[in-house]
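Continuing the series of single-chain predictions for the mutant panel. This is the parent chain; the variants come on the following pages.
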Amino acid sequence: MLSFFDENGQIKLHSGGTLHHFVKYILGEEGINEIMMLLGEKILKLSSEKKAKIDSTPLEASRYDKHADYNPHYECKMDKAHITMVGTYPVFRTHTIGLASDSL
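Parent structure:
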């Protein structure tokens, strides 16, 4: 149902809302983590790069999130994504509160 090709074989992109719904409600956290693990394993097998690094990315919290931390450095309520990278490829992501250390 989420085909990326139309009836003529042309690539079609779905709206952000459709993709968000699929990831959040169909795959869920467990499903997206499983996909990340499979992709990470494949990248590690195929890549000549063997060094990993973590890139911390601030995520501005929804205005409806009453529990998000205010981060004084970014001057907003936020969460953080910590993305493990092998070379330029993302292989895993963790999600933390906005005041978590960048050294995870």
